[in-house]
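Hi R.,

Here's the chain you asked about this morning:
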Amino acid sequence: MRIDKFLWCVRFYKTRAIATEECKKNRVFLDDAPLKPSKEILVGETYKIRKNQIDYTIQVIQIPPNRVGAKLVPLYIKDLTDPEQIEMMKSRTQMQNYYRQKGLGRPTKKDRRELDDYTLEWDDE
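And the predicted structure, written out as tokens:
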């Protein structure tokens, strides 16, 4: 199986096109060497993937027949990512939530529609 298809199958990327593009941008590595999207994967190999400024490390356990559900992903890959990288990711998400909590600031599209519906009811009366 190709590396781009594998990363899509184990839900590392949302679409296969994105996985292919990431390989072309040299963000997927095997032994510190960037991979082409057409590289065939082997069971037992360890890959490094740079995604959202975090270096993920995964090991192939099995090759999936096609895209698998999120609950089945651990059957096919083993996550060897450094705990420091995971902490960095968690701290970034907390920093983003610090600046704007949900419900504060500019209304979302859903909020705007609800406000429009509410004001239309008052205009009809």
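The two ends are 64 Å apart (CA to CA).

Let me know if you need anything else.
M.
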